[in-house]
Specification:
The structure is a single chain. This protein has nine helices and three strands, in the order βααααααββααα. It has a three-stranded antiparallel beta sheet. Helix 5 crosses helix 8 and helix 6 runs antiparallel to helix 7. The chain is mostly helical and 248 residues long.
Length: 248
């Protein structure tokens, strides 16, 4: 079960969101040819991925930033860009291009530090925009808790799209990160759960002053937990693929 879109349109083009997506995609394509070359990708991650054991010894501190633009595979990249595309435009609309840029980078740095503190001697490289995007999700939850999110539910061969409030989708996601953080070993099975959780909390905390300036709870009452723009609606169109009738 994962979100595929929201009903929360923005009023202006999210240039920063699109730029971050483009940078992540271009960077991935640049090192994609060596992704299956163990020694080459290992050296690449040593230079640019965040390795906690190096950071605590004062080495490779630039990777606290650069790891946010690396990914471990195509599906890792695709999943992160989908989440950023769904939730990023509304926060950029609310915070402005510069404010959103600062917010995104801040959330990513806090997420990296959270993962670092959870296992400071780990030699395992951490890559991915997940922590920063988790911050975007936390900020989205704070400002638009009742915005509708279309979720694709897949069970074996059954699948269905249905809308649920953002607060349900996002709190469930956050709970899964906490569960994963406590329920796995330090490697998290390859998932940086504490980076996700830390980024999510950072998004809530960093955006909280802006939320108060907008009126706090009265802002929710004013907007009913949605963006102030008219809600988007989607309709399913009939497929152009011809139907083949079964012979009797």
């Amino acid at each position: 079960m994962f979100p595929i879109r929201d009903h929360n349109p923005s009023t202006r083009t999210p240039y920063v969101t699109y730029t971050i997506m483009a940078i992540n995609i271009v960077v991935f394509l640049l090192y994609w040819p060596i992704l299956n070359d163990g020694p080459a990708i290992g050296q690449f991650y040593l230079n640019w991925a965040m390795i906690p054991d190096l950071i605590i010894h004062g080495e490779q501190t630039h990777t606290l930033f650069t790891h946010m633009f690396l990914h471990g595979g195509f599906m890792h990249l695709a999943g992160n860009m989908l989440f950023l595309w769904i939730f990023g435009d509304n926060l950029e609309d609310e915070l402005g291009h510069t404010g959103f840029t600062i917010f995104y980078i801040s959330a990513g740095l806090v997420a990296a530090i959270a993962q670092l503190l959870s296992d400071p001697t780990s030699p395992i490289p951490m890559v991915g925009a997940s922590g920063a995007i988790a911050g975007v999700m936390g900020g989205y939850l704070l400002l638009y808790p009742k915005a509708r999110i279309d979720v694709l539910f897949i069970f074996v061969i059954f699948f269905k799209i249905f809308p649920i409030p953002a607060w349900i989708a996002l709190t469930m996601w956050f709970a899964l990160q906490i569960w994963g953080g406590f329920g796995t070993d330090s490697t998290g099975g390859g998932t940086a759960y504490w980076a996700h959780a830390g980024g999510f909390v950072a998004g809530l905390v960093v955006l909280f002053p802006a939320f108060l300036r907008r009126g706090g709870v009265s802002f929710w009452r004013k907007t009913n937990g949605h963006a102030q723009n008219p809600e988007a609606t989607y309709t399913l169109t009939k497929s152009g693929i011809p139907t083949v009738r079964r012979r009797k």
